[in-house]
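User: Could you walk me through two proteins back to back? I'd like the raw sequence and the structure tokens for each, with a short line separating them so I can tell where one ends and the next begins.

Assistant: Of course. Protein one, sequence then structure:
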Amino acid sequence: MGWYSSITSKMHFDYHTPVHADIVANSFDAESFVEELKRAGCEVVYFFAKDVFGNCYWDTKVSFKHPHLRRDLLGEVVEAAGERGVRVVAYYNALDLINAKGHPEWRHRGSESVPGSEGFYVCFNSPWLDEVFFPELGELLEYSISGLFFDFLYVQHPCFCDWCEARHRGERGAPIPRSPSDPNWTRYLEWWRGVGERLIRRTLAFVKSRRPDVAVGVNWAYTPRQPGEPPPELDYLVLDPYELDCPVLNISYHARYWEQFGKPRDIYVTRFALWWGDCGFKPPDELLAECATAIANGATFIVGDHLYVDGSCEPTALELATKSFEFLREREALLGSRSVPCVAVVQSVEEIKRSVSVFVDDDPLRGAHELLVELGLHHDILLGELAGERIFEYELVVVPEQRPSPALAELLAEYVRSGGALLATCSAVEGLEGVLGVEASGYAQGENGYIVPSLELGSGPPLFVRGRFVKIKARGARVLATRADPYAPPLREGLPYEDWLGAGYGSPVPTGEPAVCEAKHGKGRAIYVAAELFRCYRSYQNWAIRELAKRLLDRLLPVRRFERVRPRTVEASLRRAPDGSYLVHLVNWRAGRGYALPMHAWELEPVDTEFKLRLEGEPRSIEVLPRGSAELEWKFRDGVLEALVKKLRIHAAVKVEL
């Protein structure tokens, strides 16, 4: 990891500039640019070497320097930064549209049978790697850069170019299947993802063999949509999260997922109101809440901006960066912590292998994450097959619509047998029928259904789930809810709105078949919900699903290590500082009203929040950090710390020393 893990204040400047832009860098002065960054408190600047179009911003002898750039822009920044003690990480975009256009034989090729697969960028199986990519990296490593940031150094869509076809035939002895309906399609995607993985490892070997001091990161690599175990040579994990729905939720999701790998992780927080390139500004409170969410979940952040076409930097962006760095410095004592095992949300490698798209569908994981955040339960997100013995440290494991591999199924069975609590949904029944006490027999018809709670589960109206249901029979499990199917008329007239649920087509018709079952297995317990509960919550936001999940979790885990009691708008995480003390992070978030996404948090009003933390001994000291960020009242009885944190505006952490 080297120097990267010890430096926190980082800023990135995009500079994607079309080839016809004739004022590129006209107003850019490297000396004043770096001086302003230094005054803002920036320690590392991410600066462009190559943009999305394929323009280079250094004096390359290999490929295309921007035609209107008369200077070695990267070289000037590296020199000015070195004189002021600021490190430079060079940004390299691997799409290279210019070379894809100039060398059509290098271009990614899609197929009509795979909508959206056509691309106008280079293919990683083409000669572009050896004729452009690695020679350009060799040139960059001659500069005194401290790191490299690769963007789009991963496979996106299936490719059917001649280079891919030849390599696939050579390695697999068969042509590339042309349709997702082909029985060999998932095997092809596994191979295709492997192409991207091998490229990352080859790139790391190339860089480290020449400059082992250069820290390397790859945007969006080893995330839930492209899972895998990062190689040891990868210095840091990094991504610019999607910001057009709820940035704080995306930041939390990925930071919690990356916790398992033990590497430095940085998540971008941009100044833009509508993500990259709109040149507007999000409210300062919103930006700081994003910074706080990263910190609260064990990550740090990179402030993102975009230089104007002439190379000038917006002063207001630097002011926001200054506030962000000050916010971070006030919380430096909170860095370097580790997550305390409470609840584990498990992603399955088997589910990844069966995916029919290059990017894995992670909606069920996101739904589980969102629901647990709202319920105030601290959790990690794990690749189940990599977790191994660590899974036994958790009080509760959630398997959200993930088909387990045989190895993971056996691990989960042993976990429950030894006293663990398991909540599994829908397709997770595969390989776990004995643990869950049910027998599955395929899916019910349709894409909708209802859960009808029993009196034992609190009764109530049928709960609508927009998703599939598995047909099950109880085999030793207690039935807590039954399934109702949507009504379907025996004959259709083909009139408009006939499929509209409100017209009666979706009215619940009881089946009497189980939908939720609870079973004992060894010393532990498991609850199975035979529906796509978490996928539905991710997309449909049905509050009743959250309430059902709360009841189920209360049954499985009536006594828990930690929970944020209220309010739902405060995210809580439980971590352990290097000195052994507990850190309870609390992040306030409430978006304003709006007809369009994203909904912004214009001004965060202070709230009072409560949490409970079960401790192994009486606390020696309790304080709020940073001091003055909130007020604290607490009591300790029967081994439980009950805390009321008052006037929490954006972020505070309660430090508990034993």
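----
Protein two, same layout:
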Amino acid sequence: MIDGQLELQGAINATVRGSAVMDGLIGKRIYDQVPADETGRVSDDLFPYVSFGPMTSGDDGDQCHDLVSISVQLDCWSRAVGWPEVKRIAAALVKLLNDKIAVPGFTVVIHEVERVLSTREADRRTSRVAIHLRYRLAPRA
């Protein structure tokens, strides 16, 4: 199995950073490791932002075709009052990634939004929307 997690993460990152709509909502703040202080606290001025959550991959091919299935979670974070800001960010991100993106070394065969989950964090002021995406990629020869 050829694992395309790194290539997919890079493609998502480039797509988000290259979007004028996302730039207006979060600037260039998309992270795989969110900047935090020595206690693990994320500064209020970093919000809103998007971060990469868990990624899983598995062989989805058959005897004739190489295919890898990759699930990725993207988390949208906000400390603005209520849901509107974080849900606007999530909606824009879903719309952006619902189009086929270019993944180096792979052809995107199928891409889909599996689910979107909105939660309030334990601090009662941080809102999060988790977007679960699935991609099926075929390696290019």
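The chain has a mean pLDDT of 93.

Let me know if you want the two compared in more detail.
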